[in-house]
Structure formats: C-alpha cells, structure tokens
Amino acid sequence: MPRSALRLLAAVLVTLSLTAGCGGGGDGSDKGRRPAGARVTIRVPADAPTISSAVSLARPGDLVLVSAGVYHESVRIDTARVTLRGVSRDKVVIDGRLRQPNGVVVAAPGVAVQNLTVENNTQNGVLVTGSAKAAAGMPGRSGGYDTGEEPVTFLKSFLVSYVTATRNGLYGIYAFSAQNGVIEHSYASGAADSGIYVGQCKPCRIVVRDNVAELNTVGYEGTNAGGDMYVVGNRLAGNRVGLTTDSDHQEKLLPQRTAVIAGNLIAANQQTATPQQADGGWGIGIGVDGGSDNEFTRNRVIGNSGAGLVLTASADLPPVGNRIVENTFGGNGVDVGWTFPTAARGRGNCLRGNTLRTTVPARLAVTAACPRPAGSLSPAGAWTAPTAPGGIPFTEVAAPGPQPQFPRAATAGATAVPAVPALPRTADVPLPPVSLLAANARVRVS
C-alpha cells in the first residue's frame, strides 16, 4: 500500500477513534476499533478527501458531513441508514460537469440526503432506487427507466431534504421503485424532464411536500405511482407543465392510481426559458394521463395559458374515478378540460365544490358532479391549445437563488429515517396562498 494511502487510513482511524471513543481494556490495544453500535461523523475533506471515499467508510447510523466546496464526483450510497449532509446547501455542490449520469445514487434503505446542491448531471441529480438497472444508469426510451424483465424490487425508506437539484438532463430528484420515503423542503429547476419524479411504486407511502419546482419541463411527475402517495403543499410554478400523474407502459405496476394531490400552488406554467417537453406539453397546470382514483383537492391552479387541469387517456389506459374537489381555478385558458382522442374513454370522474369559470365540455361541473357512478362514461370535448415555443438547453436554465438551510447542519447528528413516514391527513391541508414558498422561487405569480 502506498505511504499516502497509509497516512489517509491512519488519519481516518484516529478521527473515528476520537469521535466514537475507544473500546476494550486500558492497554490501548483496541484503539481505532469502533464499539458495537457506535455512531461517528466522517468529515469531508478532513477525514476523507472525497464524498465517495467518506461514504465507503460509513457504517449504519453514521453521518458524512461535507464542507463547502465543489465536488466533481458521482456518489453512490450502498450502506443502510447513512446520512449525507452538507454544511451549506448552496456552497456544497456535487457537479457532474455533464460527464456522469447521476449526482447521488441512494441504493440502500434508511438513507438521508440533506443540505447540498446537485447539478450538471446527464440524467439525475439525486436518484433513490431499488432497481439495479436504474442505479447503473440505464435510461429508458424517453426519460424514464425501462428495466425490461428485471423484477420489481423496492428500496424501503428514504429522505431527501433541503436539496437543490438544478440543470440535470432528466430528473432533479427521482424516486423510482422506492417506498416509504419523503422528499421535502427541496428545490428543483432546469430538469429536461421533471424536477421531482416518483415512479413505479405501489403502495408508495411517499410524501412530496413543501418543495419548489420551477423552470423545468414538468414540475412534478408521478408515473405508475399510487397507494398512500401524497403531493402536498408544493409550489409548482413557472414550468412548461406543472404536475402530471399518469400511467405508462414503459414502467411496471400499471395503472397509476390512488394519489392525493392537495394544497399545492400550480401556476403560470408556460415559462419559455425551459427545456422543451417531449410530448409538446405547454401551459398546463395539472395533467391526468390515464391515472385513476386520484383526489385533487384544495389546490390553487391559476394562470396556466392552456388549461388548469386536463383529464385524458394514456394510449389504452383510461382515467377512472378521479375526484376534483374544492380547488380554486382562475386565469387559465380553460379551467378544466376533459378530452379523449383515443378509444379509451374515462369513467366515473367527477367534480365538486370547485371555484372555476370555464370547462370543456361546458357545464361539466353539473353533468359530472360528484358522486358519479363508477361505470358512467365521462363527457369529453376539445379546445384550441396554445402553440408551445421552442425550449432552451437544460444547461442554460437560470441558476437558483439561495435556498433555506437545514437547521444546525454542522452540529446536528445523523438523521434517523423512519421505516414508514407519517402520512398527512388530507382534511388538514389548506388551500395555499399565491405567496406559497415565494421567497424560495425565481418565478413570480400574481
């Protein structure tokens, strides 16, 4: 072993010994050993020169604490219950330089990723997955992951919190084939597909809350994701499309169903300085594409030039049993529009108690009022949508401003990620103000 490597190993062992304390008797023979169950803090670059080398030293329960700097690496976490945290969200930057697919890959349960920035990756800023193919960076046909005959394996329990993901070639924060997790207090911009994406989970038991997604192709997307799937209290404004929930044959666990979309601000989603959407989506607040049994409640959906909410089929998969209740719509090209250009026709979808002015077809709030028989065909119409302008490369999207810091980032211990997160009560989720999370956003909404 080279002397430099020996010096590094010795330094790490001394640091771990000082942090965790020594085990064994008083003769010093056990120095450098870690007592069973002891937790340590491994500091980058003081104890290990790179984030990846620090993560490789970590054991379950450890904290990898990263000092300010730009780190040109791709970090993979294969050890359970490790916390990766930056001391400064804006000044700890994992920069892929467009040379690597992912900034951080979480491939073990109970991991927390906190208080740092991931940018300039060809695929994802942060990827949380139980799929070996996805973790290896094998993209599908159009952004998602087509894992072929690989059986569905879930990563169980994760936390992504206070993370800034910007200028990534597919998704900013991506949970795929994962369950029992939370994505919160984060910011996603400049994603060439979706800022935040949850795919292929059933039941998901995932909460996406209090995030800002702007200047992306799509703010939030949930594909084949349902079952205790909550998207609550987010600011999805200034994208090309605000939010989609859809069924797609490219991923397993069809169809998408039973998600709750509540208390979100979904506004002004016709931002030109964004990457172009593959399907031409533009000016849409919420798109339901073959999703079923979802609840959309107390969202503020305003200022989307095409439509506030579009309900349609995905190829052969109709939307069934979606409930649109107590939302506030305003200033949209069409507030709510239902259209079925294929043979797949929606059934049992309904509206109740919304504030809205325009629907296609007309009088939809009356003809499709809740409750609606499960087998009743949904009425449909058509309208003229605005033409989507060309986009810009994701590498040219405006940089984010400073974002809120994780409290006591440098002094708090490792984060214990629960096996199953606490799920919100939909009845407790309020209608958001226009100012929701405005201090963290570049795109203004009026």
UniProtKB/TrEMBL annotation:
Domain Right handed beta helix residues, every copy: 159-329
InterPro entries: Beta_helix, PbH1, Pectin_lyas_fold, Pectin_lyase_fold/virulence, SCF-Subunits/Alg-Epimerases
Gene3D superfamilies noted in UniProt: Single-stranded right-handed beta-helix, Pectin lyase-like (2.160.20.10)
Keyword match NAD: no
Record-linked Pfam families: Beta_helix
Keyword terms, alphabetized: Repeat, Signal
Keyword Disulfide bond: no
Signal peptide span: 1-20
Name of the protein described by the UniProt record: Right-handed parallel beta-helix repeat-containing protein
